[in-house]
Each structure stands twice: as C-alpha cells, then as structure tokens.
C-alpha cells in the first residue's frame, strides 16, 4: 500500500488555547497542539483574541473571527505552518571555546 499524505483529512471535535498554544482534539481522541507563533496573525494576536477560536466546516477548520484567520485542521495536524520555528537563543553565535583571543580570526568552523 502506498501512503499519500494528500489523502489524509483530520477533523477536530473541539479546539482551545492555553499558554499561547492552540490545541485540537481529533475525532479519534488524539490531542494535538502547536504554538500560536507558527502562524503570523496568531503570533500578533492578544491572548483574548487567541482564545476566541472556533471550529468551522464540520470540524475541518479553525477560525478566529476577530483576526480573520482560518487554519485547516489537517494542515495543522501535519505540521504545515506559515512561520518557521525560531532558532535557539544561542543559534548563530560562536562559542567562546572556538574563538581566539584578541582580534585574530575565528577557528573551528
């Protein structure tokens, strides 16, 4: 059998937000959450706006009326996000152990 992710469709029975994380409970009982920061409009929303999530299209979509934002349950369940994950705080920094003293070039990279 060949697996085709385009044929999958997830449906949610409820949705809620806690600590700026959006949660969905799927029809099979699984609960999936994702950070609101992964979607541009949700990242800019207040906590009150974010909490006003509702289900639309028989549980196939999440809707934020005040933000005019719709996200498919299937897309969120499969990890199809708008915004990339933010890098770690130290990402891109060169550890001091790899730096030479003074104004010499950086080594070890």
Q: Helix coverage percent of residues?
A: 10-25%
- Strand-residue proportion: 25-35%
Please name the CATH architecture: 2-Layer Sandwich
Q: State the end-to-end distance.
A: 45 Å
Count up the helices: 3
How are helices and strands ordered from N to C?
Answer: EEEHHEEEH
Describe it for me?
- With 109 residues, this protein is an alpha+beta fold.
- The chain has one domain: Uncharacterised protein PF10387, DUF2442 (NE0471 N-terminal domain-like, 2-Layer Sandwich).
- 14% of the residues lie in helices and 28% in strands.
- The chain is built from three helices and six strands; from the N terminus they run E-E-E-H-H-E-E-E-H.
- The chain has a three-stranded antiparallel β-sheet with strand order 1-2-3. It has a three-stranded antiparallel β-sheet with strand order 4-5-6.
- The longest helix is centred in the middle third of the chain and has 5 residues.
Any descriptors?
109 residues, alpha+beta, NE0471 N-terminal domain-like, three-stranded antiparallel beta sheet, globular, disordered C terminus
Task: Give a quick rundown of the structure.
The chain is about 15% helix and about 30% strand. The protein is an alpha+beta fold.
Helix/strand layout:
Elements: E1 12-18, E2 21-26, E3 31-35, H1 40-44, H2 47-51, E4 53-56, E5 61-64, E6 69-72, H3 73-77
Antiparallel strand pairs: 1-2, 2-3, 4-5, 5-6
């Amino acid at each position: 059998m060949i697996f085709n992710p385009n044929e999958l469709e997830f449906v949610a029975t409820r949705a809620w937000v806690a600590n700026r994380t959006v949660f969905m409970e799927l029809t099979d009982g699984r609960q999936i959450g994702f950070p609101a920061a992964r979607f541009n409009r949700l990242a800019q929303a207040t906590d009150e706006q974010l909490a006003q999530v509702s289900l639309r299209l028989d549980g196939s979509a999440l809707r934020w009326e005040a933000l005019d934002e719709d996200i498919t349950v299937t897309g969120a369940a499969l990890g199809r996000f708008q915004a990339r994950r933010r890098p770690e705080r130290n990402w891109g920094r060169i550890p001091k152990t790899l730096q030479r003293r003074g104004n010499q070039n950086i080594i070890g990279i």
